[in-house]
TrEMBL record, chains A, B:
Summary of subunit composition and partner proteins: Homodimer.
EC number: 2.4.2.22
Gene source species: Clostridium cylindrosporum DSM 605
NCBIfam families (UniProt xref): PRK09219.1, XPRTase
The reaction(s) this protein catalyses: XMP + diphosphate = xanthine + 5-phospho-alpha-D-ribose 1-diphosphate
Name this protein carries in UniProt: Xanthine phosphoribosyltransferase
Principal place of residence: cytoplasm
Positions contributing to xanthine binding: L20, N27, K156
Phosphoribosyltransferase domain location: 23-159
Localization per record: Cytoplasm
Domain of life the protein comes from: Bacteria
Length: 189, 189
């Protein structure tokens, strides 16, 4: 998606350790117009799949999934990382390893919001190691829902996330695929 | 807003301690169609205010603010509760007391995304004690941005949030105002 790639080159910043930051339009400040274009493009790419619900994970996936859901005409469910005292005890649970924090955390989705009749599109901001997506897939397996696909905004294809999804024959669409980040420069595939 | 009140009565649940849960359409599963109606209503109520940006707070405010932002044609910024290693060290910071967790937590907004020229509409899901909104107002004061208003989806007017905002002469609009919750029943104002 050219509009997105251009935006990454213009407004993305590379911090220490070749970490791409997109907090001026995706992760902290949100450019809702860009998200609308992203939503339309995701709908175009998954138009041949049956989708009854979009599943994402807090925090960064929520805005993307909510805007995109308008083009699919389905509700969004987000997996919770941070459980409050009001959390539903009757939930599916899985574990995700955070590479930035170097520790695992649990994610939960209330059993009320996923059923075996659901056909789910997973949407997330980044795909790198695939740990977050794996946690979501684990939850979908527990619920016996069908996985219709995985839509990613920015994929780092020098990590193992893509292989993991391809090995499961999951329909993966990434709107910007990064081959490498070196010397402060993003190189797209 | 009648549509919202009806939805609260139909799909909201009251858990122990007279806590209203709206996780089937607002806080965990998200009804994007309802959020669109909420966004239109917020725009109608703040149509006479100048607004350059919407400020909200993770997690539950993000979807609401993002969908609403389409009707205001402005970007969204969300205050972060959970700071990762990629967080911007150059941020405005404030503190919010969580009544559900009985402890304070810090919220941050990168200085890049708020300026003294901004005219900010704060949007959040609930207004009760007003602690979250107070933290956001503190951050706006630090940034010298103007507060154009506060838009709330569900207000519990038996707590002190409204008084706090009225004492500061802030334009407050709440789409559903709850007078009391007793014996498992929600009573609107």
């Amino acid at each position: 998606m050219e509009l997105l790639k251009k935006r990454i080159l213009t407004d993305g910043t590379i911090s220490e350790g070749n970490i791409l930051r997109v907090d001026s339009f995706l992760n902290h400040q949100i450019d809702v117009k860009l998200l609308n274009e992203i939503g339309k493009e995701l709908q175009r790419r998954f138009q041949n799949e049956t989708i009854t619900k979009i599943l994402t994970i807090e925090v960064s996936g929520i805005a993307i999934a909510s805007i995109a859901a308008q083009y699919f005409d389905v509700p969004v469910v987000f997996a919770k990382k941070h459980q409050g005292i009001n959390s539903d005890p009757d939930s599916y649970e899985s574990h995700v390893f955070s590479y930035t924090k170097k520790q695992p955390y649990s994610i939960k989705v209330s059993k009320k919001f996923l059923s075996k009749d659901d056909k789910i599109l997973i949407i997330d901001d980044f795909l790198a190691s695939g740990s977050a997506v794996s946690g979501l897939l684990d939850i979908l397996e527990q619920s016996e829902a069908t996985v219709s696909g995985v839509g990613i905004i920015i994929e780092k294809n020098f990590q193992e996330g893509r292989q993991l999804l391809e090995s499961k024959n999951i329909h993966l669409e990434s709107l910007a695929i990064i081959d490498s980040i070196s010397d402060g420069t993003v190189n797209f595939a």
